[in-house]
């Protein structure tokens, strides 16, 4: 099952993941090992049924040497072999009681923030949900915007962030139907007979590359900052109040139009409309707004012909389309595609939704995967559509294992939650995330 390097340097690896899939099927299940183990050797397969229709599988595999990979970022190509520790969560799509939902990371003020995965799961438990598993979600922005998702973020039909550069998402519709693709996001501000285009919701001023308006709620931060002075308008008397819905309108009244400043505070319960300096020079949109004007904010987000997205978490890049690997070396990826890192991915086919967490940066436990290796793994699992989500120190999977004595010591710290982190985060601890997928079981 290992790769073979010919005298010409050509890598022969076509059968590796096919063989891995065969071994995954052939190896008998055994009682789970402790997730605290620091080694992963040989070819092993541990399978646990978390609930009818939900299984967690832990695979130990021998990673082949890969001359087209780097052992770590910044290192030259030529990664040696080593162990792989792979965690797989499989959810049967026909089970109506199994529901995927998202939890947003917020602080005590209700503003977007990094929150550890187990705390995000605990939020759902505190809301009365029976949580079976949780998986880390989207990438977030660099400081000082940690905790703000880079992609579209929808939870319970409410939109927390949207717009900016087009990025794919895993979306779930009210029926439970999943979809992976790049959403079509359209936002406008209607005042009198004019429709003013909006590029982003709750994203830093420099994130969107177009020259249109940006909008903000207090979920972003208490203020909006920019490198250059910019004008802003404040919309109050919002109905319905924030957070905004994925498909609909919000009505409001212009409370004030502010002069230029590099800092614009966002009042509680209000919407701030920001006009970047380049937008003022080109379009001068805010000249159409005056205190007392009634305005309508329209938001339309679609995936294909569907506009009723219930949940959405961003990722990058798409790994598979139509059952085939479709990973493209887009410019944004840069060298990110070649090093072996911890990785998280999501996929689905006609029967299942599957999440994968691959540990990395721990030579005795797991060397991590390149994006190409990750795509091949997802294909070997029978995925039809797949997307990469945030990895590195953010890769984390927690599952409910309260009936297994091997986890009793860890679970005793929070018996109400009943979740154990089954992989080994490369930071050595939980890293807060902007959002997460949470699998819950609903009463029928």
Description:
- By secondary structure, the protein is mostly beta strands.
- It has five helices and 28 strands.
- It has helices spanning 16-26, 117-126, 277-282, 371-380, 408-411, and strands spanning 4-5, 11-12, 44-51, 54-63, 82-92, 98-104, 130-136, 153-155, 158-163, 169-172, 178-181, 184-191, 194-201, 213-216, 223-239, 244-245, 247-265, 271-275, 294-302, 311-314, 318-321, 324-325, 343-348, 352-358, 385-389, 397-400, 419-421, 435-441.
- The strands form five sheets. The chain has an eight-stranded antiparallel sheet with strand order 3-4-5-24-23-25-21-22, with helices on one face.
- Strand 8 and strand 9 (158-163) form a beta hairpin.
- Helix 1 packs across helix 4 (371-380).
- The protein is globular, with a radius of gyration of 23 Å.
- The model is unreliable at 1-15 and 30-36 (pLDDT under 50).
């Amino acid at each position: 099952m290992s790769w073979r390097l010919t005298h010409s340097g050509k890598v022969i690896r076509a059968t590796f993941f096919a063989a891995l899939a065969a071994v995954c099927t052939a190896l008998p299940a055994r009682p789970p090992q402790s997730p605290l183990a620091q080694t992963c050797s040989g070819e092993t397969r541990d399978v646990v049924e978390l609930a009818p229709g939900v299984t967690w599988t832990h695979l130990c595999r021998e990673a082949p040497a890969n001359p087209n990979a780097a052992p770590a970022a910044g290192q030259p190509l030529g990664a040696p072999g080593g162990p792989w520790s792979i965690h797989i969560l499989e959810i049967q799509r026909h089970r109506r009681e199994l529901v995927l939902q998202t939890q947003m990371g917020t602080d005590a003020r209700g503003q977007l923030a990094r929150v550890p995965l187990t705390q995000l799961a605990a939020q759902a438990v505190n809301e009365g949900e029976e949580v079976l598993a949780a998986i880390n979600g989207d990438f977030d922005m660099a400081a000082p915007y940690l905790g703000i998702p880079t992609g579209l973020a929808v939870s319970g039909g409410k939109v927390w962030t949207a717009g900016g550069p087009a990025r794919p998402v895993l979306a779930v519709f009210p029926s439970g139907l999943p979809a992976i693709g790049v959403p079509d996001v359209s936002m406008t501000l209607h005042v009198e007979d004019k429709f003013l285009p909006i590029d982003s919701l709750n994203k830093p001023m420099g994130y969107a590359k177009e020259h249109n308006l940006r909008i903000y709620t207090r979920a972003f931060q208490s203020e909006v900052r920019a490198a250059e002075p910019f004008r802003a308008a404040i919309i109050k008397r919002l109905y319905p109040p924030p957070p905004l819905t994925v498909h609909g309108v919000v009505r409001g009244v212009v409370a004030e139009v502010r002069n230029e400043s590099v800092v614009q505070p966002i009042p509680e319960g209000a919407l701030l409309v920001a006009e970047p300096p380049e937008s003022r020079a080109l379009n001068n949109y805010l000249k159409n707004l005056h205190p007392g004007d009634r305005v309508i904010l329209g938001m339309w987000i679609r995936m294909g012909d569907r506009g009723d997205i219930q949940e959405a978490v961003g990722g990058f890049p798409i790994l598979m389309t139509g059952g085939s690997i479709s990973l493209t070396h887009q410019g944004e990826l840069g060298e990110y595609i070649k090093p072996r890192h911890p990785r998280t991915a999501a996929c689905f086919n006609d029967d299942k939704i599957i999440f994968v967490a691959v540990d990395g940066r721990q030579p005795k436990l797991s060397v991590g995967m390149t994006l190409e290796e990750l795509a091949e793994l997802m294909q070997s699992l029978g995925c039809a559509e797949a997307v990469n989500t945030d990895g590195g120190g953010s890769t984390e999977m927690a599952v409910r294992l309260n009936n297994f004595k091997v986890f009793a010591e860890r679970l005793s710290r929070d018996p109400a939650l009943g979740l154990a982190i089954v992989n080994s985060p490369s930071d050595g601890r939980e890293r807060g995330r902007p959002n997460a997928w949470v699998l819950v079981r609903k009463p029928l």
